[in-house]
Amino acid sequence: MTHVFKGHAGIGDEVTGEALVASDNFSARYDLDRIKGVFSRPQHKLYGQSYDGKILILNAAKGGVASAWMLQEMVSRGVTPKALILNFANPIMAQGAAFANLAMIDRFDIDITTAIPSGARVTVVPAKGEIRLLD
Amino acid sequence: MRLNDYEQEMLAGEHGAAKKYGMEQVVRVGTFFDAPDTVEVAQVHLMADPESLGSSGVEFLEGLAALPKAERTVVVPAVTDPRGVDLAAYQRLGQTEGMADLERRATAAFRALGFMMTDTCINYQTICPPVLGEHVAFGDTGSSIYANSVQGARTNFEGGPSALAAALTGRAPRYGFHLDAVRRGSCVFEVDFRPKDLSDWGALGAYVGRKMASYWEVPVITGIDDAPTSDELKQFGAALASFGSTPLFHMIGITPEAPTLAAVFDAVVPKAEKIGKLEVDALIQSYMPSDDKLDVVVFAGPQLSLMEMQTLAGLMQDRHIHKDVALIATTSPEIKYACDRMGLTETIEGAGGMVLSGVCFYQMYAREIGEANGWKRLMSNSAKLVNILGGYGYEPVLATMEACVDSAVQGRISEAAQ
User: Fold this and answer.
1) What is the tens place of the pLDDT at every residue in B28-64?
2) Residue among B169, B150, B296, B167 at smallest CA distance from B232
3) Residues A12 and A126: beta-carbon distance below 8 Å
4) Do residues B80 and B46 lie in contact, with contact meaning Cβ atoms separated by under 8 Å?
5) How far apart are CA B302 and CA B360, in angstroms?
6) Nearest Cα residue to A103 out of A55, A31, A67, A43
7) Which residues pair with B206 in a beta bridge?
8) Range of the domain at A76
9) Contact at 8 Å (CB) between B394 and B382?
10) Pairing of strands B171-173, B38-40
11) Domain tally for chain A?
């Protein structure tokens, strides 16, 4: 049976992909090498890992305002997560996702970073605020 | 969201493509955060350095700039955050023609849209300080937290696409820190020492910021008895916003919405967490490397005020920085002009430093200029800068302005800093 996790209605279109999960926070400027598509902050729990094409599941949006532009630039260059799933977004991530039409959901009734394992296949349905765990 | 007739017309495209984009952005973000309607904003501060914009962002702006003037022009006073390239200095820094070209194109587009190119993140000190209760759309975490906390204005973090939307429509969605209920305190920190240097204030902000679980937490600070200076609160707030993604703090007896604890808590005041000098010193020490190698000293993030520039010039008077170390200070065009007039630029540059105008170090392709100049070990008195540059391949060190200058002169991290 497909397990469904429910959050707040989100932004963007439905996507399916492999989850990349950590109980850490997220900022496009502070944490990423956006050219190589990897986490570049040494202290980040996903340091060195590629986020390209992944359903990125992290705790909270952190850092500055640059992510609002950077998500669109990442999407336009094709080196981007397929979706950004957070326990708590902040306005910057929401503004960036809205501008880039990148799938995003937050505010789940559980800690989403502990509910879904890295490597799992999931479908993200922003209009319903749902993540479906496929296997 | 409830939209009035004019807002619905903008959304439908009846007032042109620029306002249609703006209202769509307002509605998408407002819907995500359950905003009931919009607020009218009095001024806009927009962050859009070319590194963040990328070529796709600049092309988007150029598309808006090509619209008829009546459709594309901003409807409220709109100013800009630091740019990514100081066109008078980029070649010395190893920035490329491609970076400079993207900068020129973005600037031309913003001018066509009616933005005033103030190129500063300290607009709250130098351009038009907002006032208590004023709704604004500020687009730098440091400017947002200062406007919300110290000046009592009301803004969310408005990233570039949304600050642009606010400038084109005069609207922002009514959610978050536009609302009374969201501005109440969440937790209390009791500070039992007086931070001395700006780097101490930044480290205190960093310490509190690390404790923040999300954007929505509002830390309340007690124990600061005498009013800090504007620059001290600037460093504290910028670091808190950077480490915590935090847009508002209250400082009891200091900031305008918090004369007492009772004023910011509805019923029970949470138990305070104590912060002593030991905790803040430990945070500073955590950035200290095991060797004393040094490549570059940077004063930025936020740009320096006139007072900070005067202090820096005083520290560099009759000295010369080591040939193997670079020293950079960034400030706004208005303050740079003042520094030129007052001889401060001459003093700093005469000692071998560089004064950059209208840029901030982390927004000017920090990774690329680090690689172009061989800079890895970086010293700064800004906790915000130290936080950001760890992700850009630097080994940042936090120290006082005095220790940073001493180190630049000696060519290595001074013993006083360690």
Assistant:
1) 999 999 999 999 999 999 999 998 899 999 999 999 9
2) B150
3) yes
4) yes
5) 7
6) A55
7) none
8) 3-133
9) no
10) antiparallel
11) 1
Domain harbouring A19, CATH code: 3.50.30.10
Which regions of chain B carry the CATH code 3.30.499.10? 287-417
DSSP SS3 for B301: strand
What letter does residue B84 receive in the DSSP assignment?
S
Q: What DSSP string describes A84-119?
A: EEEEE--HHHHHHHHHHT-EEE---SS-HHHHS-TT
Chain B residues touching A127 at Cβ < 8 A: none
Superfamily of domain B287-417: Aconitase, domain 3 (3.30.499.10)
Span B240-280, pLDDT tens digits: 999 998 999 999 999 999 999 999 999 899 999 999 999 99
Is B57 an interface residue toward A (CB < 8 Å)? yes
Q: Give B318→chain A minimum CA distance, Å.
A: 37
Q: By the 8 A CB rule, do B132 and B233 touch?
A: no
Work out the minimum CA distance from B32 to partner chain A, whole angstroms. 6
The fold of B5-178 is Aconitase; domain 3 (3.30.499)
- Averaged pLDDT for residues B317-334: 98
Q: Flag residues of chain A having pLDDT under 70.
A: 1
Q: Tell which phi-psi region holds residue B30, choosing left (phi > 0), alpha (psi between -120 and 50) or beta.
A: alpha
Residues making up chain A, counted from first to last: 135
- Residue-wise pLDDT for B176-200, tens only, equals 999 999 999 999 999 999 999 999 9
| Residue given tokens 């998500």 in the structure block | A71
Residue B392 falls in which region: left (phi positive, over 0), alpha (psi -120 to 50) or beta? alpha
Are A68 and B160 an interchain contact pair (Cβ–Cβ within 8 Å)? yes
Give, for B55, the enclosing helix (H) or strand (E).
helix B50-65
Q: How many residues does chain B have?
A: 418
d(Cα B388, Cα B394) in Å, to the nearest integer? 9
